């Protein structure tokens, strides 16, 4: 009966296919002994893997990526999924508004915890370019819903172009370089209003902001080594400078998640507010800052940044170069596939 139910449930068929492609991608053709007839689950897994025969690992990898991508799209996670609210017609993934001399860039994929797709990367760069030239005094980043940002949308890594993994990594590296450069060169005061948990690039980029205000329920997590990757957003330079080598290493190397209070103690966050009064307190303060002389603020910000601008660009280049190497490594691919595999266990 158990074997029959395994075969009849379409959901299990998909899970078995994911499992088999994962094993074929990482280990090659199945050479393990066949499980006993009464070991129903492991026998079903073995049969699915064995059925792939001599399928090359590269082909299995592509099939795995295609399958994961199709499942995410079916769940409403595709980059074309319409976000909540009424974003300006120019943006699919952001809500960008200007009011009281403050331009607000709101990440607007709340159903996906504001995970950053390749489309969103491009749109944020465009929004920053426009905010740098408009009549606002401050620019604010925040997130829609309960999350600030959950970092990279990992389905970015399932869209392998005709040129293969190497081309995908090169294109992703150039996009990341451009993205971080937009923060380094931003000419006005930049404020992060961290309304919930923050992960990955949304955390590392905070070292390039001028103020970081967080609700007490925010957390800050950079799980790079867990995913076979390395630091970005200039954090390999800014984090040790902000919090010291030991604390920075605990975050960037060993995936330590910080509470808002810890992030504030370490200097990554300017101030933490009670969740119940977070928006009212922060926005009252920001409106008062926006009333300050705009040229004085902008020129002072640029003076502070000028002492490190070239160093930050060099750090960005070095981080991107290492990440491109990481993205083409078997170690990184296996780590990301392990992440997806953990979401689809029988």
Automatic annotation (TrEMBL):
Checking PROSITE patterns in the record gives: ACB_1, ACB_2
Q: Which domain of life is it from?
A: Eukaryota
Report the residue ranges that make up the ACB domain in this protein.
1-77
* Stated name of the protein: Enoyl-CoA delta isomerase 2
Q: Name one GO molecular function term.
A: fatty-acyl-CoA binding
Establish whether keyword Signal is in the entry.
no
Q: Which UniProt keywords apply?
A: Isomerase, Peroxisome
């Amino acid at each position: 009966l158990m074997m029959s139910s395994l075969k009849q449930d379409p959901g299990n068929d998909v899970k078995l296919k994911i499992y088999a492609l994962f094993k074929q991608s990482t280990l090659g053709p199945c050479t393990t002994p066949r499980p006993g007839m009464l070991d129903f689950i492991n026998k079903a897994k073995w049969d699915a893997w064995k059925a792939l025969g001599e399928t090359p690992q590269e082909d299995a990898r592509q099939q795995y990526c295609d399958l994961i991508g199709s499942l995410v799209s079916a769940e409403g996670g595709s980059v074309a999924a319409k976000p909540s609210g009424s974003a300006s017609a120019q943006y699919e993934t952001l809500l960008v508004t200007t009011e009281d001399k403050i331009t607000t860039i709101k990440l607007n994929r709340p159903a996906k915890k504001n995970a950053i797709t390749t489309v969103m990367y491009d749109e944020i760069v465009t929004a920053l370019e426009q905010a740098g030239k408009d009549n606002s005094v401050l620019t604010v980043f925040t997130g829609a819903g309960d999350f600030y940002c959950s970092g990279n949308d990992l389905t970015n890594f399932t869209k392998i172009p005709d040129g293969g993994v190497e081309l995908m990594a090169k294109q992703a590296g150039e996009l990341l370089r451009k993205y971080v450069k937009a923060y380094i060169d931003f000419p006005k005061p930049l404020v992060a209003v961290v309304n919930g948990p923050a992960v990955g690039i949304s955390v590392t980029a905070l070292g390039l902001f001028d103020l970081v205000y967080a609700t007490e329920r925010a957390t800050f997590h950079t799980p790079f080594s867990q995913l076979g990757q390395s630091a970005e957003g200039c954090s390999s330079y800014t984090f040790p400078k902000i919090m010291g080598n030991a604390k920075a290493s605990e975050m960037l190397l060993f995936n330590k998640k910080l509470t808002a209070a810890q992030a504030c103690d370490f200097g990554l966050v300017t101030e933490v507010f009670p969740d119940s009064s977070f928006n009212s307190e922060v926005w009252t303060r920001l409106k008062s800052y926006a009333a300050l002389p705009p040229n004085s603020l902008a020129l002072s910000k640029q003076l502070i940044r000028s002492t490190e601008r070239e160093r930050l660009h060099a750090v960005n280049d070095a981080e991107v170069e290492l990440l491109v190497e990481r993205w083409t490594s078997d170690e990184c691919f296996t780590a990301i596939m392990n992440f997806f595999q953990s979401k689809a266990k029988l």
